[in-house]
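Tokens as discussed.
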């Protein structure tokens, strides 16, 4: 396998609105990010994925772009953006831009033109039909919206302020490529491609994901833009199987560097239902799915490793335990260890490195997210109780990840001196960066060490992966092997003590590379694992 710089890189995702507010208007901004670059350098990450910072009316917090070549006023100016790229570069950090190509804002000049008449040059940049069909919007309701003036419906797979672009149109594709090249010329390190598996949609056949021309478009995009530039490109692909992931990410295909797959993310919902329809996670499913991806992308293609992002709940509240300080710290470290020991590029979502948790606002009015609000209205109309809906929001709502970053114990967690756009989590007095940096045993330093271990051990990057305990309901363990070097990760996923037995693997000695307890045992024949204990060993 050809070695690439992103194979041993770790990416940190910033949701700019919630990261750091430098001008105290209650909204995070680009200068706020620049102020915190030294913090990111200290953590040891290599790349920052910036959620969208382009001009946007913020119907979906920047995922509705009205100008791809300009910066949202609240976030700053193009000058600030250029400075961010430069200041990051000085610290060895690359910036990944979030490319939202499936749709624009309805306030984008292309859509404003497209609405003017059926023979406008830009009409065909979007998808218009005489009648709606059964296609549904991810944010609820029909995916078609009536446009009275022209008597036709336009497609929006997300909100009605996010009209879908029509990739069949060659001129549109050319404009998109020019725009991507504009950002490449600014010196960015790559791109995250938002819901990229939708661009090949065939609305008349109700095909959304994985349409017939998807890979043709991606190959063309690669050739016209980032293909020969050694940039990191990661596609958001909810519909990917390992087979499909190889089409996107194998070297020969010349499409992307890697994709985000979401199979593991859907394991705690009722199959066939929406994410709001909750089901308890069975650890065996999680191991089966993650191990399948590890093994199937072994020699071809590349994995992204992530537990959370701006659309997902906080991992410590989801699959760890945040009911006490002790459990929160132990389970955050356990989850980090499992993920960072695997093969692929790890992504850390802002605040994960200090174990930030979900929020529980009592009042629906305190939530901001369009998806939450639409779902609430829809389910109230369907007769669900307020309490049931709130439980779904507490478990899966996107605002869990979007509350302001907790920097210290001062007003509003040090995020802003003004009223923050979304309420700060009340636990900021204890859970914050300042505390984490002062405590050598904090989650922060555990993550820092995990990042360092990856850089120092090729076995973690390229080693073969073997799951060891697929049938166990309590432990998650696996072996990584490269040229005779062996690294073993053993963990107890739960609070109850459990036992791990290493069968059939010989070793003379072992070294603990990292553990979330100071005094972890080295007795692998019957290793007693304390609550959430996670250990990475080198077997000799
Ligand atoms: C996926 C993004 O991650 C999400 O935040 C957004 O709402 C949709 N794509 C639509 O752009």
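Sequence:
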């Amino acid at each position: 396998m050809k070695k690439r710089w992103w194979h041993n890189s770790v990416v940190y995702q910033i949701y700019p609105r919630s990261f750091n507010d430098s001008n105290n208007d209650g909204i995070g901004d680009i200068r706020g990010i620049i102020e915190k670059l030294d913090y990111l350098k200290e953590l040891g990450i290599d790349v920052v994925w910036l959620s969208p910072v382009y001009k946007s009316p913020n119907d979906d917090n920047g995922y509705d772009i009205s100008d791809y070549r300009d910066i949202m006023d609240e976030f700053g100016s193009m000058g600030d953006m250029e400075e961010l790229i430069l200041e990051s570069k000085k610290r060895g950090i690359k910036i990944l831009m979030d490319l939202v190509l499936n749709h624009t804002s309805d306030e984008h000049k292309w859509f404003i033109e497209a609405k003017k008449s059926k023979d406008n040059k830009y009409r065909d940049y979007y998808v218009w039909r005489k009648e709606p069909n059964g296609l549904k919007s991810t944010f609820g309701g029909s995916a078609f919206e009536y446009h009275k003036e022209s008597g036709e419906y336009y497609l929006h797979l997300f909100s009605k302020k996010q009209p879908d672009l029509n990739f069949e149109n060659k001129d549109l594709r050319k404009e998109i490529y020019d725009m991507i090249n504009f950002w490449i010329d600014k010196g960015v390190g790559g791109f995250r491609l938002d819901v990229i598996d939708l661009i090949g949609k065939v609305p008349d056949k109700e095909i959304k994901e994985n349409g017939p021309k998807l890979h043709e478009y991606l190959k063309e995009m690669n050739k016209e833009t980032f293909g020969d530039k050694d940039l990191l490109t990661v596609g958001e692909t909810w519909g990917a199987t390992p087979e499909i992931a190889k089409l996107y990410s194998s070297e020969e295909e010349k499409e992307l560097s890697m994709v985000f797959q979401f199979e593991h993310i859907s394991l705690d919902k009722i199959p066939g239902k929406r994410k709001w329809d909750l089901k308890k996670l069975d650890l065996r499913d999680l191991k089966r799915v993650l191990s399948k991806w590890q093994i199937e992308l072994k020699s071809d293609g590349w994995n992204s490793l992530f537990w959370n992002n701006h659309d997902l709940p906080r991992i410590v509240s989801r699959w760890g335990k945040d009911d006490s300080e002790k459990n929160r710290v132990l389970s955050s470290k356990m989850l980090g260890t499992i993920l960072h020991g695997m093969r692929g590029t790890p992504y850390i979502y802002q605040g994960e490195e200090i174990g930030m948790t979900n929020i529980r606002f009592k009042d629906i009015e305190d939530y901001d997210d369009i998806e939450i609000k639409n779902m609430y209205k829809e389910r109230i109309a369907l007769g669900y109780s307020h309490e049931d809906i709130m439980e779904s929001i507490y478990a899966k709502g996107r605002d869990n990840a979007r509350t302001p970053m907790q920097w210290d114990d001062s007003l509003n967690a040090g995020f802003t001196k003004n009223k923050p756009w979304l309420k700060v989590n009340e636990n900021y007095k204890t859970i914050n960066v300042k505390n984490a940096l002062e405590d050598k045993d904090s989650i922060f330093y555990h993550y820092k060490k995990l990042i360092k271990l990856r850089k120092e051990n090729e076995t973690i990057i390229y080693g073969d992966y073997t799951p060891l305990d697929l049938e166990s309901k309590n432990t998650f363990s696996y072996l990584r092997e490269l040229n005779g070097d062996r690294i073993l990760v053993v963990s107890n996923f739960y609070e109850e003590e459990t036992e791990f037995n290493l069968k059939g693997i010989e070793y003379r000695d072992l070294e603990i590379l990292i553990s979330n307890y100071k005094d972890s045992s080295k007795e692998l024949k019957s290793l007693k694992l304390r609550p959430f204990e996670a250990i990475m060993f080198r077997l000799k």
